[in-house]
Amino acid sequence: MSARGRVALAVGLLGAAAASQVPEYERQYVQRLGGAIDELARQAKAFDGDAIKLGMTRDAALAHLRADSDPVARARAAAFIADEARRRALVTQRDALTREGPFTQVATLMGGLDGAVARGTLGDFRPAAPLTAEGLVAAALGFLFGGGLCHALAWPFRRRDGGAKKPGRKRTV
Q1: What are the helix (H) ranges across the chain?
Q2: d(CA 107, CA 88)
Q3: How many beta carbons lie within 10 A of that of residue 168, not counting itself?
Q4: What φ, ψ does residue 51 adopt, rounded to 5°?
Q5: Nearest to 94 by CA among 22, 36, 21, 20
Q6: How much is the pTM?
Q7: What is the helix (H) or strand (E) element at residue 170, kind and residue range?
Q8: CA–CA separation, 144 vs 159, rounded Å?
Q9: CB within 8 A of 28, min separation 6: which ones?
Q10: Number of continuous H segments (helices) and E segments (strands) in the chain
């Protein structure tokens, strides 16, 4: 095998190893997504409980906070509204990810990553062996992409004369 072939094989194997981890990252992302949803739901439940204790609905409590002259109260209302919007978006993404097939989940994931959840998942990510069908397919695609990329990058440096004969070899006719 030529040096170029060995490099292409090595890059292809590295691509396979990296790509095979995408399904595992997606699984860990979904787990972390569930934790974020649970925490935001817990905060909403606590807010609703406080509102009920004061004889208000959620909407009435939010209207009261937004109308308050205290900037902290107004900021709290705005933060709660933003958290609720984020929780709904995360639930929508989780539902889409759990509804999709294994090969379309990655596309769905990349189409709407939550930045905080994605960074947290990446920070805590633990690689896993690609023992699932999608892990093996991802590894194969990564291998092909890595090897193909290596060949594409080496293309401008190929010999134009079709390659020189290697010393010591005689050509037979």
Answers
A1: 3-19, 22-53, 58-67, 71-99, 102-111, 115-124, 133-154
A2: 20
A3: 5
A4: -65, -45
A5: 36
A6: 0.64
A7: none
A8: 23
A9: 121, 124, 125, 126
A10: 7, 0
Question: What is the distance between the alpha carbons of residues 46 and 96, in angstroms, rounded to a whole number?
Answer: 27
Averaging pLDDT over each range in 15-29, 36-50, 124-138, 158-172, which range is the top one?
A: 36-50
Q: Is the pLDDT of residue 35 over 60?
A: yes
Give the pair of three-digit tokens for residue 70: 């205290």
Token pair listed for 148: 């193909």
Per the CB < 8 A criterion, the answer to whether 33 and 90 are in contact is yes
- Sequence letter at residue 29: Y
Q: Which of 128, 116, 144, 152 is nearest to 14 (CA)?
A: 144
pLDDT of residue 161: 53
Confirm if 33 and 163 have CB atoms less than 8 A apart: no
Residues 6+ apart with CB under 8 A from 24: 125, 126, 127, 128, 130, 135
| Number of neighbours of residue 90 by Cβ within 10 angstroms | 20
Structure tokens at 98: 């759990």
In our burial notation (b when 16+ CB lie closer than 10 A, e otherwise), range 48-63 reads eeebeeeeeeeeebbe
